[in-house]
Amino acid sequence: MINILKRAKETINRLIYDSSDNVLSALKYLVFAASLIAFGILIYYYGFPHHADEKSLLIDMIKSLFLIYIINFFVRWIYSESGFQFLADNWFEGILIIILLLDGFSLYLLKAPVLKELLYSIKLENYHPLYVLFIQAYMMILAGREVIRIGQGILAFRIKPATMLVWSFLLLILAGTALLMMPEMTVNAGSMNPLNALFTSVSATCVTGLIVVDTATFFTLKGQIIILILMQLGGIGIITFASFFALSISGKSGIKQQTFMVDLLNSESVNTARELLRKIIFYTLFIELIGAVIIYSLWIPDPGFFLNNSLGLKLYYSIFHSVSAFCNAGFSLFSNNLMNHYVAAQPVLQLGFALLIVLGGLGFPALQDLFGRKALRERMRKPWKSWQVSTKVAVYSSLALIVFGSILFFILEYNNTLSGENTTNKVIQSIFQSVTTRTAGFNTVDIGQLATPTVILFIFLMFVGGSSGSTAGGIKTSTFIIILTSVYATIRGKKQLEISKRSISFQFLNRAFSIVAFAALFILLALFVLTITEPGKSMTDLMFEAFSAFGTVGLSRGITADLSVAGKWVIIVCMFIGRIGTLTLALALSRTVKTNAYKYPQTHMMVG
Q1: Which residues contact residue 200 at a Cβ distance below 8 angstroms, ignoring those fewer than 6 apart?
Q2: What residue numbers bound the domain in which 37 lies?
Q3: Quick check: is 484 in a domain?
Q4: What's the chain's Rg over C-alpha atoms?
Q5: Mean pLDDT of 298-304
Q6: Is residue 109 situated within a structural domain?
Q7: Pick from 169, 206, 236, 442: which is nearest to 325 by CA?
Q8: In this structure, is residue 533 part of a structural domain?
Q9: pLDDT tens digits, 402-451
Q10: Which of 454, 486, 544, 571 is the most exposed place for a label (fewest CB within 10 A)?
C-alpha cells in the first residue's frame, strides 16, 4: 500500500512539477489571507457582544477556513521531493490535520464530531462551550503557525536585531491597545479611552505595572487575559516567542534566522543560541507553573475569598500573579495591589512572590548557569569549577542590593508604614519591598506615605534595576558593578578592570557609561517635561513616577491616573524606552560606521 501511494505521488509530481512554483506561491498567500481572516473572526467573536445565532455563524465560518489548511498541507506534500521527509519535518501540522479530518469525517458520517462524542461519552455537562473553544484554539494554532512561517521572511531583509526588537514591541503594543479598546474587554458599556488603552498596553507589554484604571474592577475576564498575554509576551520578548515556535514547529531555521538569533540573544554561537532559546521558554513556563502552585496553596482559607473558594477563580488568580511576578510586571487583580489582606497577612506568601521576582530579575543566562542540567553535571565532575562571572555578578549584586534595601527600609519605615506590625512581619515586608522595588512594582505598604529618605532609596533601587537578560528594567546590575569597578580602579590607580580574577574589556566599560549617560539624560528630560505638564504636583512625586516608569517598576505615589494627557504620553515613552533600553534604541536608530581602520593623534584634556 505504501509503495502504491509512493508511486502515485511520484507520477502526480512529474505531471505537475512545472507548475510547482506558481501553485505554492499562490497557496502561501491564500493561507496567509485565510489566517488573517481567522484572527479577525476570533477577535470579533470575543471582542463584541453577539446573539447565539451570530456566534454559531462565526464558528461555521471558522470551520469553513479549515478546508484551506487541509488543501495547503496535501498540495505541499505532493510537491515535496520526499513525502516521508516532508511528514517528518511537518509532524506537528500533520497531527493537527489528522485530527481535523477525523473530526470532519465523523461530522458527516456519524452526524456528530469526534470531539463532541468524546466529551459526551465522559458525561461532561455543557460540553458545547468546550467544543467551541477547541475549534477556536485549533484555528489559532494553525493560523499562528502560518503567520509565523510567513513572518520569518522578514528576516531576509537586512534589519538589525535592535531595530527588529523595537518594532516587535511597537506592534505588540498597538495590537494590545486595539484589543483593550473592544467593548467586551471592559465592565462598563462602551470602549476604553484610546489613550488609557495605549497606556495600559504599554505598561503590560513593558512589564511595568503603572495603571490608570483599576485592573481588578475595570476589565472583564477577557480584558484581564489580554493583559496577562501582553505581560507574558512582553516579559520574554515577542521575537523570542516567535523564534521558539518557528523553531519548534519546523525543527530547523535558515542561516539568516540563525544569525539573527545569535545577535538577538547575545550568544556566542548558533548552537548556544538555539539552546538558550529553548531554555528561556522552558524556565519561564516551568517557574511560572511552580509559582502558581505555590501561590495557590498559600492563599488564606477564608470563606469569603474568591467567591466562596471558587476553584477556577483561585487557580486563575494564582496563574495571573505568578506570571506577573516572574515577568516583574507588577499587575495585580486586587484593587489595592498586594496591600490586600489576603497577601499582607501571609508572610510566607510574600516570600513566595519575592522568590519569583528574584528569579525573573536574575536573567535567563544566569538561570541556565545556576540550574541548567549541563552546568550542574559539569560542576559535579569538576567541583573546583565555579559559576560564570556574569552569573556571580547577577547573584551577588542582587543579594547585596536586597540586603542593603531591606535594612534601610526597616530602619527608615519602622515607625512609619511598618508601624503596627510585629517584628517578623516588619522584617519580611522590608525584604519584600526591597525585592519588588528594583524590578516588579508590587507593594504591601502605602507608597504615598513613605518618608522622603525612603523615596530616595527607592529611586536608587529602581534606577539600578535587575540583571542583564532578565525581565527587569533599570540600567542593570552588571552596568552598575562595572562602573563601581571602574571607580575603584581609578582610585587605586589600576590600568585594568578586574572582576572575580577576570579582566573586563574597556569596550564593556564604554557601553556601561553610555547606558548610564543615556538613562540619566533621558530621565532628566522626562522630568523637565513633567514639571511643565503637571504644575500642581510635587517634584518628589514626579521624580518617583519618572524613575518608576523608566525602570519598568510600576510603583507610584498615587498620581498616575491623575496625569494630564501630555503627562501620560511622557510616562508611556519612559516605559517603552526603559523596557527596550536606551542603548538598544540608539543602536536601532544609528548607522554603522563604514570602517574603524584609522586612529587620530592623542591629545590631552582636563577631567574633573
Answers
A1: 176, 180, 192, 211, 212, 213, 227
A2: 1-156
A3: no
A4: 27
A5: 68
A6: yes
A7: 442
A8: no
A9: 999 999 999 999 888 888 888 888 999 999 999 999 888 888 888 988 99
A10: 486
